[in-house]
Write a structure and sequence with these properties.
219 residues, alpha/beta, Rossmann fold, Arc Repressor Mutant, subunit A, 2 domains, 6-stranded parallel β-sheet, 10 helices, 6 strands, 53% helix, 14% strand, globular
C-alpha cells in the first residue's frame, strides 16, 4: 500500500493553467502519485527543481522562454536523478526523436493523456521508456533507414544557438536576448550570424519557420 510519503513526486510544467489543472486531477487521484510543484515554462521548471524533492518532471513541449525539450536537456545535465516525460499536441516524428535524444523517458500525446499519462509516469519510474504505438512504428522506421544508409539526422545547432533562435522566433530584440541570457549584444549578433550561416538562411522569417519545424516554438 502506498502512502503520500512514498508517492512519486511530480512537477507539472505547461504554460496553460487549465491544462495543468486537468493533468493534476488525473495524477493526484492516484495514491502512488502526487503533484508537488507546477511551472508555466521550462525556465520556471528548472528553478523549481533546484529546490529538490521532485522525482519526475512532466514537460509540455511548447512553452515560452524555454521549451520542454530544452528543459529536458538541462534537467538531464543538472538533475540526473529526475526523470522527464514530454507532453505534446503533435504526433510529430522530429519532436519524438528530439525528446528521446534529450534524455526523456517518454513522449505522451495530450489528446490521449487521460489514457496514457499514468502508464507513462509509472513506466518512467521503472526506468522503462513509454511511447504511443505510432511512435514505436516511427522509431523502427527511422532505425531501419539509418541502418540502410549508416547516417542519422543530427542537430547542427549548439544548445546556446537553439536558445537564441527560439528567442529570435518569439520576437525578442538582440538587446532583450542579451538581457535574458546575460550575454553581450555583440555575442548575440555573432551567434545570430553563425546560425544563419549554418542553416543557409537570410532573415528572421526563415529562422522562425525553422524554429517551428524543429519544435522550438509553436506554430
Amino acid at each position: 500500500m502506498h502512502t503520500r510519503e512514498s508517492a512519486t513526486r511530480i512537477l507539472l510544467a505547461d504554460d496553460h493553467a487549465l491544462v495543468r489543472r486537468g493533468l493534476r486531477l488525473i495524477l493526484d487521484a492516484e495514491p502512488d502519485l502526487t503533484v508537488v510543484a507546477e511551472a508555466a515554462d521550462g525556465a520556471e521548471a528548472i528553478e523549481a527543481l533546484a529546490a529538490g524533492g521532485v522525482d519526475l518532471a512532466i514537460l509540455d513541449i511548447a512553452m515560452p522562454r524555454m521549451t520542454g525539450l530544452q528543459a529536458a536537456r538541462e534537467i538531464a545535465r543538472r538533475f540526473p536523478t529526475v526523470r522527464t516525460l514530454i507532453l505534446s499536441m503533435y504526433d510529430n516524428e522530429q519532436y519524438l526523436f528530439e525528446a528521446l535524444k534529450a534524455g526523456s523517458s517518454g513522449y505522451v500525446l495530450k489528446s490521449v493523456a487521460d489514457r496514457d499519462l499514468l502508464h507513462a509516469v509509472r513506466a518512467a519510474m521503472r526506468d522503462e521508456p513509454f511511447l504511443y504505438p505510432a511512435a514505436v512504428t516511427a522509431l523502427i522506421r527511422e532505425f531501419l533507414a539509418r541502418d540502410r544508409d549508416g547516417t542519422g539526422p543530427e542537430s547542427i545547432l549548439t544548445p546556446r544557438e537553439e536558445e537564441i533562435i527560439k528567442l529570435i522566433a518569439e520576437g525578442y530584440s538582440s538587446k532583450r536576448i542579451a538581457e535574458t541570457l546575460t550575454i553581450s549584444v555583440k555575442t548575440v549578433d555573432r551567434h545570430r550570424a553563425n546560425i544563419l550561416g549554418k542553416l543557409g538562411m537570410r532573415d528572421r522569417l526563415e529562422l522562425t519557420k525553422y524554429a517551428i519545424r524543429v519544435g522550438l516554438v509553436e506554430p
